[in-house]
Amino acid sequence: EAQVTQNPRYLITVTGKKLTVTCSQNMNHEYMSWYRQDPGLGLRQIYYSMNVEVTDKGDVPEGYKVSRKEKRNFPLILESPSPNQTSLYFCASSFGGSGLFFGEGSRLTVL
Amino acid sequence: GQSLEQPSEVTAVEGAIVQINCTYQTSGFYGLSWYQQHDGGAPTFLSYNALDGLEETGRFSSFLSRSDSYGYLLLQELQMKDSASYFCAVEIGGSQGNLIFGKGTKLSVKP
Predict the structure, then answer these.
(1) Residues 6 or more apart from A68 whose CB is under 8 A from it?
(2) Is B87 in the A-facing interface, judged by CB distances under 8 Å?
(3) Measuring CA to CA, which residue among A51, A35, A58 is closest to residue B92?
(4) Burial of B39 (0-12, 13-18, 19+ CB in 10 A)
(5) How far is B109 from chain A (nearest CA, A)?
(6) Min Cα–Cα distance to chain B from A71, Å
(7) pLDDT in tens for each of the 111 residues of chain A?
(8) Do A42 and B44 count as a contact with CB atoms less than 8 A apart?
(9) By the 8 A CB rule, do B108 and B10 touch?
(10) In 3D, which of A31, A13, A32, A27 has the Cα closest to residue A85?
(11) What is the chain B residue with the closest CA to A48?
């Protein structure tokens, strides 16, 4: 089954405690990206990757890091999370003509 | 800056037709996509327009006018299950994955 898998799905953490949200896709897609979704603000792009070892900033990259060492994985790293990073995060991948394929989302709360 | 404008809420009755408009102002443009998101779920791809005109997929159609920086999603024969948020998104990077999203339109379908 074609899917984008994110973990964890839910996480409550404290300010400053580093965390990683993993994202893996099994469709051999070259393009992957991370979005955050906040009420009234829609989906905002954090980072994207056109292929292995190629990443670039989206609209709201501050406070986040990513890496793309393998085609299937695109983890999102919060080195020192802050409460304003409390949000719903979506990972997505694309092969080009099919549009974005989203994961189920990761709801993060930073206290 | 980049902006996509769409109505925040639309209400319609079962069996009716509803049109959700989207106007955009972006630094690049390769195409306009539409996504559907049910409460608590992930966005799912509905349609993509790269050229002017109407694309039809079942009960849903999407239209694009590049000269007017405008598009719309048309939903016909509305069903209760169509109650969801609908997002337009502009592809700015030419990969059909580098997307900027609008803030979404919440569609409520009443019996």
Answers:
(1) A32, A49, A51, A52, A53, A54, A55, A74
(2) yes
(3) A58
(4) exposed
(5) 20
(6) 15
(7) 889 999 999 999 999 999 999 999 999 999 999 999 999 889 999 999 988 999 999 989 999 999 999 999 999 999 999 999 999 999 999 876 668 899 999 999 999
(8) no
(9) yes
(10) A13
(11) B98
Degrees to nearest 5, angle at CA A100 with B60 and B90: 75
Q: Tokens 């983890």 — which residue? A: A75
Give the separation between CA A101 and CA B55, rounded to whole angstroms. 20
- Residue B12's identity, in one-letter code, is A
Q: Which residue of A has its CA nearest to B93?
A: A50
Which two three-digit tokens encode residue A86?
A: 């409390």
Residue A28 tokens, joined:
């051999």
Fill in the amino acid letter for B68: D
Residue pair A2/A98 in contact (Cβ under 8 Å)? The answer is no
Respond yes or no on whether the N-terminal peptide bond of residue A8 is cis (omega within 30° of 0): yes
DSSP β-ladder status, A10-13 and A106-110: parallel
Q: Tell me which residue has tokens 């292929």.
A: A51
Among chain A residues, the shortest Cα distance to B99 is held by: A45
